[in-house]
Amino acid sequence: MSHPPAPTIVRHRRSLPLIWVVPLVAFLVGGWLIARSYRERGPEITIRFQNGAGIEEGKTILEHKGVAVGTVENVQLDEKHDSVLVKVRLVKNAAYLARADSEFWLVRPEIGFSGIKGLDTLFTGARLKVRPGTGGQPATEFTALRRAPLLETSGRGRSFVLRADRLGALNSGAPVFFREIKVGFIEAHRLTPDADGVLVRIRIRTPYDQLVHADTKFWNSGGVSVKVGLLGAELRSNSLESLVTGGISFATPSASNSAPVTDDTEFLIADEADKEWLKWKPKIPIQESVEDWETTPEAEPSR
Amino acid sequence: MDRTLHCHACTLALPEAAPAYEATPCPRCGTPLRRRQPHAVERSAAFALAGLFMLVPANVLPVVSTILMGQARTDTIFSSALALYRDGLWGIALIVFTASILVPLLKLVSLGCLLHAVRTRSARRSRGLTKLYAFVKFIGRWSMLDVFLVAFLTGAVQFGSLATVRPEPGVIAFAAAVVLTVFATESFDPRLLWDANIDLAHDRAITP
Questions:
Q1: Which residue of B has its CA nearest to A21?
Q2: Which residues of chain A lie closer than 8 angstroms to B79, CB-CB?
Q3: Left, alpha or beta for B157 (phi > 0: left; psi -120 to 50: alpha)?
Q4: In this complex, is the C-beta atom of B53 within 8 Å of any C-beta atom belonging to chain A?
Q5: Do the Cβ atoms of B108 and B181 come closer than 8 Å?
Q6: Strand runs (DSSP E) across chain B, as ranges?
Q7: Structure ipTM
Q8: What is the number of alpha carbons within 13 Å of residue A140 lying toward its C-beta?
Q9: What pTM did the predictor assign?
């Protein structure tokens, strides 16, 4: 376009440099916004699940101690189509969860005799949970546990192996009582190597594990025991929970002087308590802190 | 050809004896007389460029996060339109997509066309370009739909874990992008579109 400029036309002045500060600021702010959201992203990990039911992209969160520490970004079948690969984007300050010995599992609502678990997932949908590893190598690939580890809430404690003729109602998760206080639970069970009995592994929370001595007696306290005699009827049950799920109680002799048990000690589970056992009152020092008071739900301060 | 110069404030018409009048106060109201808005092209281009820069985080970053019946989700503009479409609300999805993605982009493209036409002193299609400018100016006020929606929902929907809506950084970038494109539209002077035609007419008038 080469018209001879008419004399009356006012030419535009030189450009005003100040106005170009606006796009410069916009560029910097925009870049900063994007960079910030990238910096807040933690590493991406891949978890292999046997079954991906309930896991949704962008919705399902990974939770640790009740706090969201990651979001599912992608769900797909693996190459062999026999498991599900779930990609989870961790938040930045949860990057330490990406360790080889971290364990992941899926929480679904579970209503069993030993209680109702994950009821809130009825509303929120499934949810992933993690038990952080203590010091493994950094890792990005994990295989999910098939079910929540039983030790989730009580990491500390000690396991003992008991022997019984038959399993009865001693399922995993059932409680273990001392003086009708729940001090542990049944971890696992299996047949003995030669199938002549059942081995039940229990876990007693610290500090109650010190109550178990070599001469401690265990008995099956599940169900109700009803005795009808000439002088009336006697009905005995530990708690409603053990009424349904079964449970184990134990007592230690008053004059127990035996040293605390070694790992390979095997105890027998009696079918019912000897009258004598119930009278035992051993004095075993356990350091219980004030927080260990068992409270009923009503007694807890309202939140 | 008789050409006149109009005061921007009181529209007093003066015979155009520019550059004599340029930047002198209007004899009637005192406003500095301008033949064209000064630096219109530069200002418009700068604001448009700034708007373009803000449009990137506006579309990449999430604009809103919602918790509905315990289900939390975070959405960018596009993912919210996609979610609406998947829920079968394709009408609303189309509105969101048009108002929040298509219109801002079309506005910037249109402004680019207008600025290009002025820059190259193109005398063609001036009428169409003027109509385009009018349309860009008209549509500008409707682009804040998303921002209003997020602002309204944030205020109205606060029911704890049942339903909560929270704004995310993207919505600020989006609002900034809309405001900047409005500035770009407003600082553009549509009379510039006709200058090339006037030159042509002028040339014809003086060269028989």
A1: B46
A2: 58
A3: beta
A4: yes
A5: yes
A6: 4-6, 13-15, 64-68, 71-75, 163-167
A7: 0.77
A8: 8
A9: 0.60
